[in-house]
Amino acid sequence: MRISVSSDMDEPVARALLGELRDRGHDVVTHGALRPGDDPQWAACSEAAAREVAAGSADQAVVCCWTGTGASIAANKVPGVRAALCTDAYTADGARRWNDANVLALSLRLTSEPLLKEILEAWFAAEASTDTEDRANVARVERLDNDRNSLFPRRTSSA
Fold first, then answer.
1. How many angstroms separate the first and last alpha carbons of the chain?
2. Is a pLDDT exceeding 70 seen at residue 59?
3. Averaged over 88-114, what is the pLDDT?
4. Euclidean distance between CA atoms 47 and 41, whole angstroms
5. Which of 12, 60, 78, 110 would you label with 138, given CA atoms 20 to 30 Å apart?
6. Rounded to whole angstroms, what are the CA distances from 73 to 46, 50, 65, 136?
7. pTM above 0.85, yes or no
């Protein structure tokens, strides 16, 4: 699986994340502080990773910042992305299962290496639910993306 990873800081847990993903056999593409010369700002690098998922050039993404909140917000602004901030394995399982999340957001501050392994194990073990109600909710979120794009077309700056 090709996974796009972003982090606004080159922290030990971000490096451990790269190692864990590669050890699991994934093709990893890095953004932000994990790629020399790249823009390390959380909004920019999270957007870059999320856009790869939306474009289909990455199967999933993991976006990181100090709290994980900014990274998840930025990723969720990209149409087609369902980013979930996960601080434990149960949340990661539910995000994949019930929300069909395709981007995992992590806190560099709260995520220890042992917890990281638990979260990743749950994330990759879970599959999107085929339950009618769960699929209807995911479809509704997709419609929200479509509605947002039609109601609020991207504006260009006049400056």
1. 41
2. yes
3. 97
4. 10
5. 110
6. 9, 11, 11, 23
7. yes
Contact 100, 91 (CB under 8 A): no
Q: How confident is the model at residue 143 (pLDDT cuts 50, 70, 90)?
A: confident
Mean of the per-residue pLDDT values for the chain?
Answer: 93
Active site annotation includes 86: no
Catalytic hit among 45, 64, 65, 86? 65
Q: 122: which 2 tokens?
A: 């749950």
Residues present in the chain in total? 159
pLDDT for the residue 159: 45
Residue with tokens 């539910």: 94
Average pLDDT over residues 67-73: 98
CB 25 within 8 A of CB 120: no
Tokens of 57: 């050039």
Distance CA 134, CA 30 (A): 31
If one counts every other C-beta atom within 10 angstroms of the C-beta of residue 70, the result is 19
